[in-house]
């Protein structure tokens, strides 16, 4: 039970518990790209970085001498890096960087590179409150969190045994002496206290001998050596567990200090304020109406200065126009700022955002999401803002919020492998805005068998019938009832299973989004992640009382456990039929362990999911660049294909992707048959015919067209043909299966009509289940090309507008008898499309006009049979009926 | 207003029901505020236009000096009454089928025998010692001298509106001093207006000569009496604005065609598919909304680019987000389907019945564009 109380201290402080553990090994490498700001580091210039590189290199050499084992560790991790991130550039640079970082970190902290270091901590046993029942003196006094080995992930008994005696620092309690002194790092091992050797056995005794306020010298062993002992395999065992204070979480997640990040956006006006509308003019106090404000930068100070406007407008407009104010725009110097309002009770939440980041069209959605997240976290806006204790947490919350909106690339950079010397990638702000603004979660369709297995595993977990969790085991009332859980794969990018009601799912998802849990770690493996906090699911809070039944008044807790590629969110209920919770309880180790066990169990299925991800896109996609006649090769190919229908047919049945040299071939070809079709063949008789034709001679003599294409692909002309699906006849994409090819024949789902596949991108949102599907990141990444990313950005931007049109027209539907011209003038919108034209950039040929390509972006809203929204982007050449496409897509994906 | 001292300029607000408030200060002297209840996000575009137009109206009637250097506020208030009727006209948008105040493109009418009218207008203006002459039929410009077209689009629109408001007063002719908001905001010109037939007016902008009665007695009869029949034909076109030779496809319920170079526009509503349920008023309303919708989101408006910088910042924030150029857009609603198309020279907006297949809209639009070669 130690685990549960372990978090007790922290919870009583602030009720949120974010225990975030990072693998200090290859898995987490890139996330762990900690830039320890050496005071001067504000914006890191190129030079600066070089300097630091040098610094790190020095540190590394010093370390090398010491740690032979450490290098041994590096080698496997290098190998692993090669395997895992095959597409990442030089694989060796990644694992190395962590070492450099660690070295630099050491240097920053202690001057001499020593294996053992001393840290002086001032302790005062008198200040121990009565509140700490469990954690032991180590925590209570020193603020060092140590987890006994038994609570670690199962499946690694050997490692656990090895570690039995050592006092590894698994976490630091905020504001504790240990955290304050700054020299004790997570992962260190406490070797001695005032020269008395300590182990987990005697530490309590040693500490209890400290009579009064005094300074204690701790001797610590650094992390690298300890971990290096593990040697061969970077296994789950080496996961230093951290429960850092929130700001540290930021530093870990972003690799930078919040202050620094905040400073870099200081000139961009943005603000959040929570204002009281009840003004007591008698009281002389200034700025009394501001209940909360963030940030404190100059530009936002300006916005703060004009808060009178917001208050007046809020008050006045309701009287004048009869509707509540929702937004206003103002010019601050050169910046146009959109300000969104949210009135709750007698208080007003005001959020100002720069117009170039958040168009007015989606301000409403953004604001709504923030409010909802806050409500999920704190129950209501009032309770969130009016309690002083929450201020630092809210600061952090909004810091994340603004950073995500204003400079998302900065966040990415912090976690993407090497700090790119290249300029930050063009921000796809509208993409983020659009996808996150959808009341839905990205869904990954899985083959039915895998899906079933996943569901079974989750259901098993949710039934809570296992060992210690069952009521029979201790004869006690259970602590929590599992209301449901959902599982994200690739840490949060894709939802693969959901056993939560829709609203709860959205709550959970919003929370994850705001804390960057979803987007940030999408491609990396998170070592371990545990988040525990009390939540207030909106649906439950908001009544929903059926006749004769009232929901048991219970408290709800959200437990998020991430383990490498998986992240599981569990919603627990205390009270009701479980025992009521008192105070602010911490996570019960049993639950955490069970979730972990579930995740480990699921890891067995990972191969299948990975395969699904690396499978060719289910509705085939085309790359925009193929449609620009820029590449002369295309014409030739077209000519070839057109000249002989038989040839084109055969070419249509192009073989599966040639295994890329290296590691991932197995992933693509191994158990291909398991990738049974979520993409059912859809009555496309032409497709069938092609398929069967290909089935007869899948490896038939290479016809000229194909050879041509292959050769083109191999010399990689502009990356045009490297992509595995045949660009021109994706519709009848056919894979030659290395095994069982005769039984398994797929004609891949094709969305567009006509011979060529003209689909570029799609998003389908189903409102009932709160999910949306879109091509996976990897699918998009496969379609390399210069125009395609642009196109997708444009698509997302346009979708913002389309969706805004849908949203605006919806209220009009409800109040159909409202006088016309009120609200939205155009009436309910069913479908909306925009045609775009694009030209290749930097067209140098002066004589000829640049070739152009036109494509549609169309959004369609369906209310029957299930409410759906469907956004699609396709080439102009074929007239499409979006409804049909939507249906094809939603039927084709076995949802 | 409130935030000026802090360096913040408030420009607009939006409320739940789609209503909005828009502020703008002109020449550091007059602040205009427009409030509307309902209309959606696009309403702000309209309100912004309205403010601009109202300010221009005030300049047109009173001159800029009067408004910028205000000596006596009470007197100014009294004087402003003289432009109320014009402002009312803009506010009420009484006359259906006049979209100029929104599009800032002169509403025009394509007369059956344009060359005769053109010659006569030119001759008439020359005789009146002026380079600016214009024939207005049903509030739309049927013909005008070249110089008239060279006036700023906004001035052309306001002058048409002004003539409309004068002719509705019923007098046969009048002589009125006007300031051109952009051309000569401080020096007044004389606007002579003569009613040729009910609904058809001719006007010239001229200097101190000739006197009104002289021009009326000598010139009007001489130039226009031979053309009475032609004028009647023009009047007979009514709101269709298009010569009888042009037959639109029956599946065009309403259209608005803008020539982006000459800043002229033609719009009409086709009523002959009577079986269709949409009323005329509703069609105009839809056309208007669709225009604002598509221009505020996809198609750029020319003058937005040359306006004052702060205005530019307000308009373009969404448009600039597109990495590729929008060309066409359509909207399927319950009542009808709307299609918008933009080429370097034209913008075309049309409404179709809902039973027209969506993919056919584009063909309908391009064909319609070809049908109207007159607009160039």
From TrEMBL, chain A:
Q: Where is the composition biased (Basic residues)?
A: 65-80
What family classification does the UniProt entry report for this protein?
A: Belongs to the inturned family.
Report the InterPro entries cross-referenced here.
Answer: CCZ1/INTU/HSP4_longin_1 (IPR043987), CCZ1/INTU/HSP4_longin_3 (IPR043989), CCZ1/INTU_longin_2 (IPR043988), INTU (IPR039151), PDZ (IPR001478), PDZ_6 (IPR041489), PDZ_sf (IPR036034)
Domain PDZ positions:
167-222
| Endpoints of the signal sequence | none
Enumerate the Gene Ontology biological process terms: cilium assembly; establishment of planar polarity; nervous system development; vesicle-mediated transport
Q: Which domain of life is it from?
A: Eukaryota
Do the record's keywords include Glycoprotein? no
Q: Enumerate the UniProt keywords alphabetically.
A: Cilium biogenesis/degradation, Cytoplasm, Developmental protein
For this protein, the record's SMART domains field holds: PDZ
Q: Which PANTHER family match?
A: PROTEIN INTURNED
Its protein name is Protein inturned
Query: Upper lineage ranks?
Result: Eukaryota, Metazoa, Chordata, Craniata, Vertebrata
Q: Where in the cell is it found?
A: Cell surface; Cytoplasm, Cytoskeleton, Cilium basal body
Q: Which SUPFAM superfamilies match?
A: PDZ domain-like (SSF50156)
Q: What is the first-listed, main subcellular location in coarse terms?
A: other
Task: Cite the residue spans of the region called Disordered.
Answer: 39-96, 650-725
Task: Mention any one GO cellular component term assigned to this protein in its UniProt record.
Answer: cilium
What Gene3D superfamilies is this protein classified in? 2.30.42.10
- Has keyword Cytoplasm? yes
Q: Where is the composition biased (Basic and acidic residues)?
A: 39-63
From TrEMBL, chain B:
Superkingdom as given in the UniProt entry: Eukaryota
**Where in this chain does the record put each FUZ/MON1/HPS1 second Longin domain?**
130-224
The record places domain FUZ/MON1/HPS1 third Longin at: 252-369
* Subcellular localization, as worded in the UniProt entry: Cytoplasm, Cytoskeleton
Name one cellular component (GO) term.
cytoskeleton
FUZ/MON1/HPS1 first Longin domain segment(s): 6-89
The biological process GO terms on file are: non-motile cilium assembly; vesicle-mediated transport
Report if keyword Cytoplasm is assigned: yes
Major location (coarse): cytoplasm
Keyword annotations for this protein, in alphabetical order, are: Cytoplasm, Cytoskeleton
One family name in Pfam for this protein = Fuz_longin_2
The question of whether Transport is a record keyword is answered with: no
Q: Which family does it belong to?
A: Belongs to the fuzzy family.
| Name listed for the protein in its UniProt record | Fuzzy planar cell polarity protein
Species source reads Salarias fasciatus (Jewelled blenny)
């Amino acid at each position: 039970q130690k685990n549960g109380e372990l978090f007790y201290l922290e919870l009583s402080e602030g009720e949120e518990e974010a225990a975030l553990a990072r693998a200090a090994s290859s898995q987490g490498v890139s996330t762990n790209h900690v830039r320890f700001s050496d005071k001067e580091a504000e914006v890191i210039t190129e030079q600066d970085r070089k300097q630091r590189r040098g610094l790190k290199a020095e540190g590394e050499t010093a370390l090398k001498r010491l740690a032979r084992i450490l290098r041994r560790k590096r080698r496997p991790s290098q190998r692993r890096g090669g395997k895992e991130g095959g597409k990442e550039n030089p694989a060796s640079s990644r694992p190395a960087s962590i070492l450099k970082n660690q070295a630099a970190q050491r240097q920053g902290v202690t001057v001499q590179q020593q294996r053992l270091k001393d840290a002086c901590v001032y302790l005062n046993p008198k200040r121990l409150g009565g509140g700490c029942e469990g954690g032991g003196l180590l925590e209570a006094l020193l603020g060092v969190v140590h987890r006994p080995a038994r609570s670690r992930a199962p499946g690694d008994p050997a490692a656990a045994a090895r570690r039995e005696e050592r006092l590894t620092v698994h976490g630091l309690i905020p504001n504790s002496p240990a955290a304050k002194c700054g020299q004790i790092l997570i992962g260190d091992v406490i070797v001695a206290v005032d020269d008395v050797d300590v182990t987990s056995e005697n530490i309590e005794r040693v500490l209890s001998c400290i009579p009064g306020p005094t300074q204690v010298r701790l001797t610590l062993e650094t992390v690298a050596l300890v971990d290096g002992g593990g040697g061969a395999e970077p296994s789950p065992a080496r996961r230093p567990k951290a429960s850092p204070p929130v700001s540290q979480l930021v530093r870990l997640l972003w690799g930078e200090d919040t202050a620094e990040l905040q400073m870099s956006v200081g000139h961009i006006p943005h603000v959040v304020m929570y204002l009281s509308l009840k003004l007591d003019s008698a009281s002389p106090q200034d700025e009394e109406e501001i209940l909360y404000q963030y940030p404190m930068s100059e530009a936002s100070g300006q916005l703060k200065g004009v808060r009178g406007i917001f208050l007046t407008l809020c008050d006045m407009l309701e009287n004048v126009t009869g509707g509540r104010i929702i937004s206003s725009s103002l010019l601050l110097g050169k910046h146009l700022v959109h300000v969104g309002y949210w009135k709750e009770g007698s208080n007003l939440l005001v959020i100002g955002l720069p117009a170039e980041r958040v168009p007015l069209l989606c301000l409403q959605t953004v604001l709504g999401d923030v409010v909802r997240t806050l409500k999920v976290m704190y129950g209501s806006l009032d309770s969130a803002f009016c309690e002083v204790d929450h201020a630092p947490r809210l600061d952090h919350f909004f810091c994340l919020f603004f950073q995500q909106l204003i400079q998302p690339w900065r966040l990415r950079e912090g976690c993407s492998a090497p700090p790119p010397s290249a300029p930050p990638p063009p921000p796809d702000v509208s993409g983020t805005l659009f996808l996150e603004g959808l009341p839905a979660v990205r869904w990954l369709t899985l083959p039915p068998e895998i899906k079933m297995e996943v569901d079974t595993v989750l259901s098993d977990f949710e039934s809570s019938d296992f060992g210690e969790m069952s009521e029979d085991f201790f004869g006690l009332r259970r602590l929590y009832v599992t209301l449901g859980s959902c599982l994200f794969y690739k840490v949060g990018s894709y939802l693969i299973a959901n056993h939560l009601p829709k609203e709860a799912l959205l709550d959970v998802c919003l929370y994850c989004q705001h804390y960057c849990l979803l987007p940030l770690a999408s491609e990396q493996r998170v070592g371990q992640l545990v988040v525990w906090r009390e939540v207030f699911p909106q649906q439950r809070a908001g009544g929903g009382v059926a006749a004769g039944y009232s929901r048991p008044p219970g408290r709800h807790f959200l437990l998020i456990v991430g383990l490498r590629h998986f992240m599981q969110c569990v919603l627990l209920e205390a009270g009701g039929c479980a025992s009521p919770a008192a105070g602010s309880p911490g996570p019960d180790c049993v639950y955490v362990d069970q979730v972990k066990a579930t995740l480990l169990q699921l890891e067995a299925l990972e191969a299948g999911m990975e395969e699904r991800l690396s499978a060719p896109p289910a509705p085939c996609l085309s790359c925009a660049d193929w449609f620009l006649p820029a590449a002369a090769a295309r014409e030739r190919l077209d000519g070839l294909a057109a000249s002989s229908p038989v040839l084109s047919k055969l070419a249509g049945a192009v073989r599966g992707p040639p295994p890329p040299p290296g590691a991932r071939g197995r992933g693509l070809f191994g158990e291909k048959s398991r990738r049974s079709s979520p993409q059912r063949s859809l009555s496309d008789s032409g497709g069938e015919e092609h398929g069967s034709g290909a089935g007869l001679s899948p490896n038939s003599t290479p016809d000229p067209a194909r050879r041509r294409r292959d050769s083109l692909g191999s010399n990689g002309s502009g990356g045009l043909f490297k992509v595995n699906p045949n660009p021109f006849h994706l519709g009848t994409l056919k894979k030659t299966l290395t095994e069982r090819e005769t039984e398994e024949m797929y004609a891949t789902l094709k969305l567009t009509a006509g011979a060529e596949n003209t689909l570029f991108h799609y998003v389908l949102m189903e409102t009932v289940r709160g999910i949306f599907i879109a091509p996976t990141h990897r699918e998009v990444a496969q379609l390399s090309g210069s125009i395609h990313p642009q196109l997708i950005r444009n698509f997302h931007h346009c979708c913002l507008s389309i969706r805004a049109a849908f949203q605006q027209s919806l209220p009009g539907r409800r109040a159909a008898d409202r006088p016309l011209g009120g609200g939205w003038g155009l009436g309910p919108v069913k479908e909306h499309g925009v045609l775009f034209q694009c030209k290749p950039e930097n067209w140098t040929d002066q004589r000829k006009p640049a070739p152009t390509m036109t494509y549609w972006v169309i959004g369609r809203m369906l209310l029957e049979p299930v409410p759906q929204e469907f956004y699609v982007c396709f080439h102009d050449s074929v007239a499409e009926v979006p409804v049909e496409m939507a249906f094809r897509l939603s039927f084709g994906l076995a949802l | 207003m409130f935030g000026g001292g802090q360096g913040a300029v408030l420009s607009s607000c939006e409320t739940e029901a789609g209503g909005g408030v828009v502020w703008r200060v002109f020449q550091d002297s007059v602040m205009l505020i427009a409030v509307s209840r309902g209309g959606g996000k696009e309403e702000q575009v309209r309100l912004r236009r309205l403010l601009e137009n109202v300010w221009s109206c005030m300049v047109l009637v009173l001159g800029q000096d009067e408004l910028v250097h205000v000596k006596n506020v009470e007197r100014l208030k009294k004087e402003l009454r003289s432009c109320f009727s014009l402002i009312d006209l803009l506010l009420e948008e009484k006359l259906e089928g006049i979209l100029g105040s929104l599009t800032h493109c002169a509403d025009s009418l394509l007369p059956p025998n344009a060359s005769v009218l053109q010659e006569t207008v030119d001759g008439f203006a020359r005789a009146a010692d002026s380079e600016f002459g214009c024939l207005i039929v049903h509030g739309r410009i049927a013909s005008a001298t070249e110089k008239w077209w060279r006036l700023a689009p906004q001035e052309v629109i306001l002058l048409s509106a002004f003539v409309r408001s004068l002719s509705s007063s019923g007098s046969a002719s009048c002589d009125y001093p006007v300031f051109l908001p952009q051309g000569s905001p401080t020096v007044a010109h004389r606007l002579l207006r003569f009613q040729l037939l009910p609904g058809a007016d001719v006007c010239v902008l001229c200097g101190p000569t000739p006197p009104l009665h002289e021009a009326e007695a000598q010139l009007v009869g001489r130039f226009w009496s031979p053309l009475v029949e032609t004028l009647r034909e023009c009047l007979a076109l009514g709101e269709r604005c298009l010569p009888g030779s042009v037959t639109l496809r029956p599946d065009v319920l309403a259209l608005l065609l803008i020539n982006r170079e000459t800043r002229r526009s033609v719009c009409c509503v086709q009523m002959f598919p009577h079986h269709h349920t949409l009323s005329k008023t509703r069609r105009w309303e839809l056309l208007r909304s669709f225009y604002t919708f598509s221009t505020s989101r996809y198609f750029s408006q020319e003058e937005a680019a040359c306006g004052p910088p702060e205005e530019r910042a307000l308009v373009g924030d969404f448009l600039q987000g597109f990495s590729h150029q929008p060309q066409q857009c359509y909207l399927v609603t319950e009542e009808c389907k709307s299609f918008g198309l933009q080429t370097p020279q034209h913008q075309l907006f049309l409404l179709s019945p809902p039973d027209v297949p969506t993919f056919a809209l584009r063909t309908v639009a391009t064909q319609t564009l070809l049908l109207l070669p007159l607009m160039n």
